[in-house]
Design brief:
With about 220 residues, the chain is mostly helical. Helix content is about 50%, strand content about 5%. A hairpin with a 5-residue loop joins strand 1 and strand 2.
Length: about 220
């Protein structure tokens, strides 16, 4: 009823008030009745919960980012917001995602910016083997142009990835079993960090943290 009345009233109402005191007392009483109503806390709670859910979803979408992954190494697209083309500035060795040779179990260290990767052929969904650009165009067109970074960027990333693999490989090999432990000796000599390299027990700690995050029970360490 009050909505119908509000629609019929002019936008700028200028009505004469015969008794200001009576008007003020009546208005105060009506506002008090409205404020003391049980509907107010309920409505406020519903509005707050709705706003918190929306805020939580927005925050999580920013944290999670785009869900698309590089068709070669599996690294996440690092673009945020609405976009139709995907891009990844820093690619991982496919081994970090568990990719290995099917016959030998050796981890894959083919970086997306390497010459071997660009010159290789890839099997498309239709069973045809094509060169890299053609493979991406046919099966993953939203990733074009693919890997436009300079060779210098790739070289720097490869050095960092080799160091990361040397010091993180033990829990990764356990997680991606039956992946074989194949790490070039020169990598170990150059990048091994005694006292900082992860061990297999760190895998259990990581799984426990992920489990608590999913159950919303994780508490940051002090």
């Amino acid at each position: 009823a009050h909505r119908q009345l509000a629609e019929r009233l002019p936008a700028t109402a200028d009505f004469h008030i015969a008794d200001p005191k009576l008007f003020a007392e009546t208005l105060q009483a009506r506002i008090s009745d409205f404020a003391d109503s049980r509907e107010i806390p309920k409505r406020l709670s519903e509005q707050l919960q709705k706003a918190l859910r929306e805020q939580s979803l927005q925050a999580w979408s920013l944290i999670r980012g785009c869900s698309e992954r590089c068709p070669l190494c599996g690294s996440k697209c690092d673009l945020v917001g609405e976009h139709s083309r995907h891009h990844c500035a820093h690619h991982l060795f496919p081994a970090f995602h568990g990719w290995m040779d099917r016959s030998t179990g050796l981890p894959s260290f083919h970086h997306c910016l390497s010459c071997d990767t660009r010159e290789g052929t890839y099997e498309c969904r239709d069973g045809t083997w094509r060169k890299l650009e053609e493979y991406v165009r046919v099966d993953h067109p939203s990733w074009l142009p693919f890997c436009t970074e300079s060779a210098g960027t790739g070289d720097r990333d490869v050095q960092l990835l080799r160091a990361a693999w040397v010091n993180c490989r033990e829990p990764l090999l356990e997680h991606f079993s039956p992946m074989a432990d194949e790490c070039p000796e020169e990598w170990v000599k150059s990048y091994q960090e005694e006292g900082r390299a992860l061990s297999r027990k760190d895998l259990d700690m990581a799984k426990d943290t992920i489990r608590k995050l999913r159950l919303r029970r994780w508490i940051p360490p002090e």
